[in-house]
Known about the structure:
Low-confidence stretches: 216-231, 259-263
CATH topology of the domain at 6-220: BirA Bifunctional Protein, domain 2
Number of helices: 12
Shape: elongated
Structural class: alpha+beta
Largest sheet: 6 strands, antiparallel
Amino acid sequence: xxxxxxxxxxxxxxxxxxxxxxxxxxxxxxxxxxxxxxxxxxxxxxxxxxxxxxxxxxxxxxxxxxxxxxxxxxxxxxxxxxxxxxxxxxxxxxxxxxxxxxxxxxxxxxxxxxxxxxxxxxxxxxxxxxxxxxxxxxxxxxxxxxxxxxxxxxxxxxxxxxxxxxxxxxxxxxxxxxxxxxxxxxxxxxxxxxxxxxxxxxxxxxxxxxxxxxxxxxxxxxxxxxxxxxxxxxxxxxxxxxxxxxxxxxxxxxxxxxxxxxxxxxxxxxxxxxxxxxxxxxxxxxxxxxxxxxxxxxxxxxxxxxxxxxxxxxxxxxxxxxxxxxxxxxxxxxxxxxxxxxxxxxxxxxxxxxxxxxxxxxxxxxxxxxxxxxxxxxxxxxxxxxxxxxxxxxxxxxxxxxxxxxxxxxxxxxxxxxxxxxxxxxxxxxxxxxxxxxxxxxxxxxxxxxxxxxxxxxxxxxxxxxxxxxxxxxxxxxxxxxxxxxxxxxxxxxxxxxxxx
Length: 501
């Protein structure tokens, strides 16, 4: 399994993006609820907590009111109200810094890959101890995005430095790094970031993830070191070049002196011939020897100088190429940063416009609902009026019809009323007859009840006699009765074997 890379770089710093106040195209909104929010505190509130007491202490020492900080520490530094994007002061201070931390890439640690959950656990463990490891970096917003291609952290923090002059507690990255033990200079941030990468690497190894060696990329110190190495070599070659020039210069001056020496001699009358003295001839010979030696030394130094110059030119070409590449990359990054800033500004403006339009739409909807309600009420009242008129008209027709029917049926009613009286009389007579018959039936029922009671008493006496006789015969009266009810004759029951039925 190939090792995974660790990316620990400085981010753009957009709280709106991190907290999904707007949603980029590369976000799967169905997975946005899976994002882990560690802390989300307004930057204005964080600045107040960190610096308000220090500002009060600073103001209390000032004798001139124009030196006091009156509108808040954030407004004092950045000349604007707190916002969700990075603001920069005139001296280069940033309102906050962001680090984006990621393990692997979308190709080997994508959100649906086998290692995505392990990477998530590693990042979670790394984040939970971040504030304790970095007490001078106050984290006010931190989130793990799980709705993009690869799990990654956005950590937004404000650097805190302590000073003996001015405001005692200030926004100061260099001082914060120094107080946390990363020293001074432009490499302090690189040393800190490398230490953080080592922490994350150890966490990954403990979870069974193999981490690849470091590669050159944005956010690491290797490019800076490489640039410094080339610059040191260039400076060394330039110093050597100057030393060679200094060494050659006396030889050049000696040659110029030798060239300037003139031999007087005496001119002979024949041809272009001069007669010199022995001492002058020796002087010329010495000068020739010295000049020959100087020419050899100059030639040797010139060859050495040419070789060094070739090496120097080669190194300069490499450095120029590297500087061009770095400048181009820096220009590209600046262009991208500018583009992103413009986009974010545009998005923020569009978002504000959208919120305003939404509020206007809500107001219009409310007004529309009110007008619509009034319209429905009016329409309902009109329909009720129409229905009332229709019902009134229908009722008038029914009243007329009923009035006619009442008039027509009035005679029939009187006739029926008379007939009803006759029928009532007949019913009364019939009812009287029924009452008489009922009374007669009740008398008969009473007589039958009396007879039944007498019969029951007679049967009880018979049973009493039967039980007495059965005891005398040492027999069970109930068995005798059952056999008799079953059809056996008395002779059979009492000992006759004829079994006649």
